[in-house]
Amino acid sequence: MPAELTWGPLGAASATEVADLAERCRAVDGGLTEVAISRYSDGGAITTAGRTAAGELVAVAVVRRVGERAMITGMVDPARRGLGVGSRLLDWALSAAGTFTGDVVLETEAVTPEAQRLFESRGLRQVFAEDVMRIDLSGDLPAAAVPAGVEMITWAPETVGRFFEVYEAAFRERPGFPGWPAERWVAWTAGDDEFRPDCSVLATDADGGADLGFVTCADGWIVQVGVRPEARGRGIAAGLVVEALRRMRAEGATSALLDVNANNPGAARVYARLGFSVVGRRARFEPARAS
């Protein structure tokens, strides 16, 4: 039971313990250990940690400020689940989040049915979910190429505007489309230190000159893939992904990741056919709004 654990702040010298706990959770739940760990390194965060009598870290939660939001995340050792530890962590986190101003958001790198039931029991509802998929680049690349007559153009200052126009056309009708102006999307895309312009590619019709689709990349990640509605069904998305993977592998990458929204099964099927497999489902939850 939770009373068997000793509770207190995580402490600044716990990076190895957090990594070990994240790996134990990943082995059961999936997800990305490195992403989970990064959320516990915020020096301004509020934390609580549960330890056994022997001092082993078996549960941890953190509340940190991200913009105008109080972001909650946590982990419970699989061997300690079903004993009320997760409930204790969540109740603590919701109370701690109340000391911040702004909206409360709970995020997880590997939501499970049990965790989802717990979150819902505290009045939280899922507002976003996406599957993280991985491909091994040590073997042969998928047999997919863009159709004949389609040319690949690498990201460059003079092509940035064309990338944005295809992005807007490809995603405008998707749920949650932010409607950003070009400057904000370009800053979001290329402002990251890990952005890879050399692996980010625009597909264009070599004859007519129309831009058809795009892919943008960061270190080890396929970030966004989009195809204009009128150009879909021609294998352009698959060809763009394979071209990006080819470039990534040529520069030494041994694997690549991408994420696909849970409400976009068509894209998920394309990636699965290319050899990507799901390694975890990340999700966000927020307090249910009164109607």
Write the layout of secondary structure elements.
Layout: E1 6-8, H1 15-29, H2 33-38, E2 46-51, E3 57-66, E4 69-76, H3 85-97, E5 103-108, H4 113-121, E6 124-136, E7 150-154, H5 160-171, H6 182-190, E8 201-205, E9 211-218, E10 221-227, H7 236-250, E11 255-261, H8 265-274, E12 277-287
Parallel strand pairs: 4-5, 10-11
Antiparallel strand pairs: 1-2, 2-3, 3-4, 5-12, 6-11, 6-12, 7-8, 8-9, 9-10
Architecture overview:
By secondary structure, this protein is α+β, with helices and mostly antiparallel strands. The protein has 2 domains: 2-131 and 283-287, Aminopeptidase (3-Layer(aba) Sandwich); 139-253, 3-Layer(aba) Sandwich (Aminopeptidase). The chain is 31% helix and 31% strand. The chain contains 8 helices and 12 strands. It has helices at 15-29, 33-38, 85-97, 113-121, 160-171, 182-190, 236-250, 265-274, and strands at residues 6-8, 46-51, 57-66, 69-76, 103-108, 124-136, 150-154, 201-205, 211-218, 221-227, 255-261, 277-287. The chain has a 12-stranded mixed β-sheet with strand order 1-2-3-4-5-12-6-11-10-9-8-7, sandwiched between helices. Strand 8 (201-205) and strand 9 (211-218) form a beta hairpin. It is elongated. It starts with 5 loop residues before the first strand and ends with a strand.
